[in-house]
Design goal:
Blueprint: E1 3-7, H1 11-26, E2 35-40, E3 44-46, E4 60-62, H2 63-67, E5 73-83, E6 88-93, E7 98-102, E8 105-108, E9 112-114, H3 131-143, E10 155-159, H4 163-179, E11 187-192, H5 206-216, E12 218-222, E13 226-230, E14 233-236, E15 241-242, E16 246-249, E17 253-255, E18 272-273, E19 286-288, E20 293-294, E21 296-298, E22 301-302, H6 307-326, E23 339-343, E24 349-353, E25 358-362, H7 363-377, H8 385-391
Parallel strand pairs: 1-2, 1-8, 2-5, 8-19, 10-11, 10-16, 11-12, 18-20
Antiparallel strand pairs: 3-4, 5-6, 6-7, 9-17, 13-14, 14-15, 21-22, 23-24, 24-25
Helix pairs in contact: 1-6, 4-5
């Protein structure tokens, strides 16, 4: 019996498992259905796009409630080695016991990580990249009222004014004012080494972003980088120091280091180059999806590291690895038109469409859409096998796919 092994329990990995099972069940009674195994160290799918919000421990979906009903085997382990020649991976399970898992087809969907700060005092800096970091920040913020008064106690410095940094800064302005003894004590500073906020977001949404930052009282320190961190504050490249008890790092993302163990070409983010079927170029029987794959959304346009692209990639790659083993034709990756919905805290949100990010919605209307995305659209169904497999159809689109650029 053939085996499909999926590394990673995030959006791409979970949907890859469901996509494979969906095709295996619809291929007919005579098909030799492959065994699908997903391996991840955690028990939950963490809804990473929501980790900038308050109380992040809420944002989990138990993997067993998605994978169990559709017959996917789950292994709780950390994968440390991939041998594509021998068709196996090695790792360590929770008991500390070395394990080896074999495969006929491998899907690497191990996600990405924030690039850690390479500065003195980096250990004092927070992040919202993974659940432990987001939970640590949450605990820290709620401990502030009980700490002895100190300079910068109600000041937060957010490093990086990209998508995540903007959302974190806007959210922190609201979160800190909700717990501070006097909202007027709160100060949020957004530090960005570029000379504009949201450099990768383009000029389209920038006026709305800047309006939100002004409304929320978020200061901007542009064309500036961080030189060091510590209990007293954050040092900047202009020679100044901002006293702060809370520094959050959001600058830069890289694919899982496991991509380095696949003998394929990688891009500047460490993502593996794949073909239109999401097979790793030049590596037999290995596929990649989500933040580990430099897939093309359209010619010359690689996908973004986001759940908007990870979900359809997962569904498609699951379909294709099963099709590969069942002797069926593969499908081509052709994602929905690109959209961005950026949360701007109590100011609202801004929705853009297309690679030029033409603004479609702002304010309360965009905020309602963002909340629908965050609280409903990105969550997989649980417990109901038919519903889970129905959602695993790679043909399905997101509601935002009907938006067009203006």
């Amino acid at each position: 019996m053939s085996e499909i092994l999926i590394i990673g329990g995030g959006f791409a990995g979970v949907w890859a498992a469901a996509g494979a099972q969906r095709l295996a069940r619809t291929a007919g009674p005579d098909a030799a259905a492959p065994v699908v195994t997903l391996v991840d160290a955690a028990d939950d799918l963490v809804v990473r796009p929501r980790l900038y919000e308050d109380d992040p421990q809420r944002f989990r979906v138990p993997l067993d409630r998605v994978l169990g009903p559709i017959g996917v085997r789950r292994v709780a382990a950390v994968i440390t080695g991939i041998d594509t020649a021998a068709h196996h991976v090695t790792g360590v399970d929770r008991a500390g016991t070395p394990i080896t898992l074999t495969y006929d087809r491998l899907v690497l969907a191990a996600g990405s990580r924030t690039v850690p700060p390479d500065i003195p005092g980096a250990a004092t800096v927070f992040d919202v990249d993974q659940m432990p970091g987001a939970a640590r920040l949450h605990s820290h913020l709620h401990s502030l009222p009980d700490l002895p008064e100190r300079p910068g106690q109600w000041t937060a410095v957010v490093v990086g004014a990209g998508f995540t940094g903007i959302e974190v800064a806007c959210e922190l302005a609201d979160r800190l004012r909700a717990i501070a003894p006097d909202p007027r004590l709160v100060r949020v500073v957004l530090v960005e080494r570029s000379d504009v906020v949201g450099p990768e977001l383009g000029a389209g949404p920038r006026p709305e972003i800047e309006a939100a930052l002004a409304t929320l009282g978020v200061e901007q320190r542009l064309a500036t980088s961080v030189t060091g961190a510590g209990p007293g504050g954050i040092g900047l490249s202009d020679g100044t120091t901002i006293p702060t008890a809370t520094a959050v790092w959001t600058a830069g993302m890289l694919a899982s280091p496991l991509t380095a163990q696949i003998p394929g070409r990688r891009d500047a983010l460490g993502r593996l180059h794949v073909d239109s079927h999401l097979r790793v170029l030049g590596v037999p029987d290995v596929y990649a999806a989500g933040d580990t794959a430099a897939a093309l959304a359209e010619p010359g346009r690689p996908v973004m590291q986001s759940c908007q692209h990870a979900v359809p990639q997962g569904k498609l790659v699951g379909h294709n690895v099963a099709a590969d083993l069942l002797g069926l034709p593969p499908a081509e990756f052709a994602p929905d038109p690109y959209v961005t919905c950026l949360d701007l805290g109590s100011h609202g949100a801004v929705l853009t469409a297309g690679w030029d990010r033409a603004v479609q919605l702002t304010g309360a209307a965009a905020k309602d859409l963002k909340q629908s995305i965050n609280t409903s659209w990105i969550y997989p169904p649980v417990d109901d096998p038919d519903l889970i497999l129905d959602h695993a159809d790679w043909h399905t689109t997101w509601p935002t796919a009907q938006l067009t650029t203006t």
